[in-house]
Structure formats: C-alpha cells, structure tokens
C-alpha cells in the first residue's frame, strides 16, 4: 500500500496518494502500534504528500510528531530521525520559515557529518537542502558555494553522471541564474540536460526539468525565440509523458510559457495558457497553494500589462510613462525557486 501511494505521489495524483497513505497509517497504528518504526514511516510518507499539496501546516505538524517519536524511539542520531529532521526543514522552507529551516538543516548536516561522515550520500543530501534554503532567502553567494561543494563531492563519490550529481548541477545552475550569471547558468544547464538525456533518457521527468530550466535562463537573457521553442518542446513531452497534462510539472511548463509570451506582448496566447494553468493548479494543488496563488498574481499582472499596452498605443496618448513588461525571467525564476519549482527536493522518504 505504501509503495502504491509513493507511485501515486510521483504521478502527481496527490489526493489518491494522501488517501492511500492515511489508510496505511491507520492500519499500521492499529496492528503495530503508534510507535512502531513502520508506523512512523507511514507518518513520514503522509507528511510528504501533504507537503506536495501545499498543506504545509498539517505537513509540519505530522513531521514534528514523526520526529519526536523517532527521537524517543530510535535516538537523535539515528538515520531515520535525521530524515525526519530533513523533511521538517523542507516544509519549513516552503512556508517561508527560512531561519527555522536553515537552523534545522544545519543541525541535520552537522549530525550526519558526525554519524555518517562528510561524503555519505545522506550528508550530501543535507548539504543540498541547506543550499536550497539559502537560495530561498536570497543568500546567493552562500548558496552557490554550498552547491559547488556538494557538486564536487558528489562527482567524487558518485561519479559525474549519477542522478544526484546531475541534481546538484541543476541546482547550481539555478542559483547562478538568480544572480544574473546567465552565461555560466546556461552552460551548466546545457551540460545537465545533455547528461540527463544520455543517462535517464529524453522523456524522463528530470530531463524535462533541465529543459524547463534552460528555457528559463534563455528567457532571462531575452533569448525569447530559443526560450519559447524550448518551453514548447518541454510542454509537449510532459503532456504526452507518463505523468500527463495535469501533473504539476506539465502545469509549470504551461505557466512559464504563459509568462514568456506575456513578456513578448502576445497577450491572447498568454491569456489562454494562464487560464489553463490557474484552473488546473486550483484543481490539482488547491486554491490556497502558493503556486496557485502566484499563478493568479502573474495572471492579474499580465491583464494589467495588457491594459497598459492598449493605453500606451491609444492615439490620444502621447506618452503613457508606464512599462509594458511584466518582469524579467529572473523574477519568475526567483519566485518559482521559493516554491520549489525548478529545483530538486533532496529530502529522503
């Protein structure tokens, strides 16, 4: 049951995954008791799918319960306890509780370095998570440094083509983009994409994430034709792939393409895509999910920009004095990064 729930979660079928995880948790509590390690694993998995849906308060509460029980049952340095700490840090980050998230990640990293060693894969996961929360706070120099260290260690320990190494490359490219280091970010994204295509295949979700990220950095550089072409390719592959057109990854492609078209003043096309993304996000993630709210905000900004365009081109107006761009791609990049879109989540299940 837990394995099926994990598959449903990966497919973006969050309501079904939540229901399945709740059933698994209830049965394990009844049969094994509330403190059995398998019961705590079910709590952890339920917290993760709640997190995926943006139900952050409930996910935080569930993670705290799982962490407290694991600390009592297994001890504060047990690998499962440290996984709970890592997952709690993640949900704190996604709520904007950055100081708490940073502190929790630093504690987890310090314990993993002591217990598992500085080059253990779980330790490198904590380094990656800490880099992400630094990125979320706009501490880009620190985030870049941490990402570079994580990447170097993963290349040494796991090899240059391991999926975790490629995740570190993708996250480093993202923080370079958000600092305006576009040429280096584009180069890094191209390398990541090429390796993922070779290792994982052209249709793998991680490969498509790299395509989406490469389109984003081209948008940031005003390479709109190349960015649009890449966005459309990514969207087409995501729609026909295993995850389907309603999966959040596919909706991210719709969202990013809508934003790019609005920047090019192609408002009618952008309007159609924004309406699709907003409606689907509302259904899949819920109306209060941060991504849903951000999409609605960008949609409103696009409508306002469209009106400004009309005003500026009116023959009665000599100079409107208003800007007709929604914003640079880097602004969208920063916003998506804070919601965990385009960056890989390292937390372990």
General description of the model:
The protein is built from 16 helices and no strands. 76% of the residues lie in helices and 0% in strands. Among the domains are: 1-74, Serine Threonine Protein Phosphatase 5, Tetratricopeptide repeat, CATH 1.25.40; 243-311, Serine Threonine Protein Phosphatase 5, Tetratricopeptide repeat. With 349 residues, it is an all-alpha fold. It starts with a helix and ends in an 11-residue tail after the last helix.
Give me the secondary-structure topology.
Layout: H1 2-10, H2 14-31, H3 37-52, H4 56-74, H5 79-94, H6 98-116, H7 121-136, H8 140-157, H9 163-178, H10 182-199, H11 205-220, H12 224-240, H13 248-263, H14 267-284, H15 290-312, H16 329-338
Helix pairs in contact: 1-2, 2-3, 3-4, 4-5, 5-6, 5-7, 6-7, 7-8, 8-9, 9-10, 9-11, 10-11, 11-12, 11-13, 12-13, 13-14, 14-15
Give the overall shape. globular
CATH fold name of the domain at 1-74: Serine Threonine Protein Phosphatase 5, Tetratricopeptide repeat
Q: Catalogue the unreliable spans.
A: 316-329, 345-349
Could you say which structural class the secondary elements and strand pairing correspond to? mainly alpha
Estimate what percentage of residues fall within beta strands. under 5%
The description of the largest β-sheet is: none
Query: What is the percent of helical residues?
Result: over 70%
What is the name of the CATH class of the domain at 1-74? Answer: Mainly Alpha
CATH architecture of the domain at 1-74: Alpha Horseshoe
Name the average pLDDT: 87
The end-to-end span amounts to: 15 Å
Oligomer: single chain
Query: Total helix count?
Result: 16
What's the alpha carbon Rg, rounded to whole Å? Answer: 21 Å
Biased composition (Basic and acidic residues): 220-229
Family: Belongs to the kinesin light chain family.
Region (Disordered): 203-232
Subcellular location: Cytoplasm, Cytoskeleton
